[in-house]
Amino acid sequence: MDPVGLLFYLVAFLIFGGIYAILCLALNVQWGFGGLFNAGIAGFFAVGAYTSALLTAAPALTHVGGFELPVPVGILAAAVTAGLTGWAVAKICIRLKSDYLAMASIGIAEILRMVIVNEDWLTNGSLGITNIPRPFERLIPLLPSPFDTFFQGRNTDILFLIVVWAIVAVIYLVCNRLYDSPWGRTLRAVRDNEDAARAVGKDVDAFRLQTFVIGAALMGVAGALSAHYFRFLSPEATEPLLITFLVWVMLMAGGSGNNKGAIVGALSVWAIWSMTEIFANRLPAELATRSSYIRMLLIGLLLQFVLQRYRSGLLPERSPGIIFDKDEDKTHG
Predict the structure, then answer these.
(1) What are the tens digits of pLDDT across the range 103-140?
(2) Any idea what the Cα angle at residue 218 is, between residues 215 and 221, rounded to 5°?
(3) 3-state SS, residue 238
(4) pLDDT over 50 (residue 166)
(5) What is the number of alpha carbons within 13 Å of residue 126 lying toward its C-beta?
(6) Alpha-carbon distance 199 to 204, whole Å?
(7) Of 29, 131, 221, 246, which one has the greatest count of Cβ atoms within 10 A?
(8) What percent of the chain has pLDDT over 90?
(9) Nearest to residue 295, comparing CAs of 272, 313, 315?
(10) Is the predicted pLDDT of residue 325 greater than 70, yes or no?
(11) 318 within a domain of the structure (yes/no)
């Protein structure tokens, strides 16, 4: 096997594995920390992806935007827009119980996706957005020519891999600080016993809203990175099967409530999903059309195995210890 080709397969695997890790960390904030059943991940992912794409892409007559802003500005705007969208959704749905919240969130996510598909003037509909830049593209010509020759002109993949995992590291550290903070301990108390949290004076709705907004903003960042990685964005990139379903499987397999588990689950399930695609492409033509269903079956079997053997995932949530910080709640013993 060509070593350079193998290297760039690994690079591509790690890039999208990192994007899924961000989605898992975002869902872990909402579900693992706060117990919020968000089944509309694809909607917030799409909002972030299209926001960054429209702000950073080259001008075009087929859609609005095309402002050619720097990529970091686009990613930051994606987080803000997805967070504001999450705030609007949470204001409507946050008081709903888990199953009703799931139905409401998936309905709103589908509305967002339908807007993307049907409003051609805004997003170019099913034809998508092209010429989406990657970060540090202008640095590529400054690299030594032997470096460029070895990597066959794909230096931006290496740089993008570094960017993605730097963002994963920052988000992981932030999520860990949130988990260990008084805010995180109160949030887990709300998750475990909402009535008890209300009884000691906690504003349950405010904590749930904050959690939903933070998770939605992080999902927007993942969407933006996906758009910049492919340099092209169409509604097919926001399919719930590839976003919402897979991310839930990743978090359940890795360990809900554990940030390390979220990353491990993302990489493990993505490895199975991507590797089965290689084998599916080698199947006879009559079976190749059914390969996606076979892959879904394998993912389902994996989840069943993990949950049978490890009920709380590969890396379960550690013991929360003290729920309320004594400086925040003077009534705690």
Answers:
(1) 888 898 889 888 988 888 999 998 999 999 998 776 66
(2) 155
(3) helix
(4) yes
(5) 1
(6) 10
(7) 29
(8) 55
(9) 272
(10) no
(11) no
For residue 21, tell me if it sits in a domain. yes
Nearest alpha-carbon partner for 46 in 85, 102, 91: 85
268 found inside a domain: no
Q: If DSSP states are collapsed to H, E and C, what string results for 27-75?
A: HHHHHHHCCCCCCCHHHHHHHHHHHHHHHHCCCCCCCCCCCCCCHHHHH
Q: Distance (Å, rounded) from C-alpha 233 to C-alpha 227?
A: 6
- Tokens, residue 10: 């690994």
Report how far residue 199's alpha carbon sits from residue 187's, in angstroms, rounded to the nearest whole number. Answer: 14
Q: Which two tokens stand for residue 15?
A: 């890039």
- The answer to whether residues 210 and 29 touch, using CB atoms and an 8 Å cutoff, is no
Report how far residue 179's alpha carbon sits from residue 290's, in angstroms, rounded to the nearest whole number: 42
**Domain interval for residue 150:** 3-239
Determine the residue type at 236: E
Residue 124 lies in a domain: yes
What sign for the dihedral angle of Cα 112, 113, 117, 120?
positive
SS3 233: strand
Handedness of CA 224, 165, 10, 249 (dihedral sign): negative
> Cα angle vertex 15, ends 12, 19, to 5°?
140
Q: What is the CA radius of gyration of the chain?
A: 21
Give the model confidence (pLDDT) of 151-164 as tens digits: 444 678 888 999 99
Work out the burial of residue 309: count CB atoms within 10 Å of its CB; fewer than 13 is exposed, 13-18 middle, 19 or more buried: exposed
Phi and psi, residue 129, nearest 5°: -115, 130
| Token pair for 103 | 């139905």
- In sequence order, what are the residues at sequence separation of 6 or more whose Cβ sits closer than 8 angstroms to the Cβ of residue 272? 298, 299, 302
Task: Give CA–CA dist 216/227, Å, rounded.
Answer: 17
Per-residue pLDDT, 152: 47
pLDDT in tens, 33-75: 999 999 999 999 999 999 999 999 988 888 888 899 999 999 9
Residues 259 and 316: beta-carbon distance below 8 Å: no
Task: Say how many domains are in the chain.
Answer: 1
- Give the helix, strand, coil percentages of the chain, each rounded to 5: 75, 0, 25
